[in-house]
Design goal:
- With about 425 residues, the chain is mostly beta strands.
- It is about 5% helix and about 50% strand.
- It has a domain of about 70 residues.
- About 0% of the residues have low confidence.
- One of its GO terms (biological process) is heart development.
């Protein structure tokens, strides 16, 4: 066993150890959930070393440096006002999704026009148009943190894997019998998972371009999925009202989470994969123990369907977005609602935290995106200009750029 290199994970508060075991490359994550601006980093790393034999004396200084960098980011004050930088109108039909790469230097847009486009964030220049799908490109993702590959899932029942640098297609994954509506890379970038309206999810080998497993068990369409950070588990959410936890190695269901009385809209792990949050058309968000599959709490209060849920990156808070035009923030430990985000005049389809967890971004059918203080629930800024509903939005990691994608065929860059 040899330690090959250390990586600082860009979204959760932690570091990733990448090492060789025989000829196989493996990764292990170390959470730094308790890191604060005033933490003694040297003492913290020494404590980590005691329980992690991969961190030897020779690489301790590098680990300290990485943790200090993360600490500096936590300590940075941010009171950023966003202004419109560029409107990108080259899609000829509405956008479906937007996503940043690790650093936020590039982003991708999917569209009903059957293409995915790759953009340079700093200039707004189009770098590549990924063409080849025969129907709507609905689900898109970078293989973050690496960012050298892009996956696109389409209503044409296929998923394609592309080179970020050249825009060439590496593989076309065929096997689903209906539309692909969600996808995700594992953090190790060895697998892509696709979820389909054919009621199955499939796992695909990134290098070989082959199907690894078909996950069968849901009785209706799968519309949400997410890998655990270690990559050994995956969750799927279905309109059959359930969330399933699967073993990636065997392709078998570990637990079925039963309790919702409506279609699942969204499902997510928290960073250390101890919890799962699920949003549903039954107007609730449910919290589950990811290890035992048991129900922990039902987060109530919305008057309309819960359309999106997300954890902040340290898993302390959960944000929900609803068709009732509001978003809510709940404390993951107390299960109490700590803030109501009210002001949108239409349903909110997307909600996300910035990396530091102090801001929340929402996208709405009222043609605006809003920036909120996650502690107080106060609206800090309204991003106006789109002429139709906003389907998708995202922060870059640093939190100083935002992209919004709309039914008006355009994407906007804000910084």
């Amino acid at each position: 066993m040899g330690l090959r290199r250390l990586l600082l994970r860009y979204f959760p508060p932690g570091i990733i150890l990448e090492y060789l075991e025989g000829d196989e490359s493996k990764t292990r994550s170390i959470d730094l959930l308790n890191l604060r601006p005033d933490t003694d980093v040297t003492a913290l790393v020494e404590e980590i070393r005691k329980g992690e034999p991969l961190i030897t004396a020779s690489c301790t200084e590098h680990v300290i440096y990485l943790v200090q960098r993360l600490q500096q980011k936590l300590g940075e004050k941010q009171n950023h006002k966003f202004s419109l930088f560029k409107v990108l109108r080259t899609h000829i039909l509405p956008l479906t999704n937007v996503a940043f790469n690790k650093s936020g230097s590039r982003f991708i847009t999917g569209s009903y026009d059957r293409t995915c486009k790759l953009w340079d964030t700093a200039s707004g220049e189009e770098l590549h148009t990924l063409e080849g799908h025969k129907n709507v490109v609905f689900a898109i993702a970078f293989n973050n943190p690496y960012g050298d590959k892009i996956a696109t899932g389409s209503f044409d029942k296929t998923c394609k894997l592309w080179s970020t640098e050249t825009g060439k297609c590496y593989h076309t994954f065929r096997g689903h019998t209906a539309e692909i509506v969600c996808l995700s890379f594992n953090l190790q970038s060895t697998l892509v998972a696709t979820g389909s309206t054919d009621s199955t999810a499939k796992l695909w080998d990134v290098e070989k371009g082959e199907e690894v497993a078909t996950l069968r068990g849901h009785s209706a369409e799968i519309i949400a999925l997410a890998f655990s950070t270690t990559g050994d588990k995956i969750i799927t959410g279905s309109i059959d009202h359930t969330v399933a936890i699967w073993d990636v190695g065997t392709g078998r269901i570990i637990h079925t989470l039963i309790g919702h009385r409506g279609e699942i809209s969204s499902a997510q792990f928290n960073w250390d994969c101890s919890l799962i949050a699920s949003g549903s058309m039954d107007k609730t968000c449910m919290l589950w123990n990811a290890v035992t599959g048991t129900h922990i709490a039902t987060l109530t209060g919305h008057r309309g369907e819960v359309l999106d849920v997300c954890f902040d990156y340290i898993g302390q808070r959960i944000a929900t977005a609803s068709a009732d035009g509001s978003a809510r923030i709940y404390n993951a430990e107390t299960k109490k609602c700590i803030a109501k985000l009210e002001g949108h005049e239409g349903e909110i389809s997307r909600v996300c935290f910035n990396a530091k967890g102090n801001f929340i971004l929402t996208a709405s059918s009222d043609k605006t995106a809003r920036l909120w203080d996650s502690d107080t629930g106060h609206c800090l800024q309204i991003l106006r200009g789109h002429t139709d509903e906003i389907f998708s939005c995202a922060f870059n990691y640093k939190g100083d750029k935002i992209i919004t994608g709309s039914k008006d065929n355009s994407c906007r860059i804000w910084h």
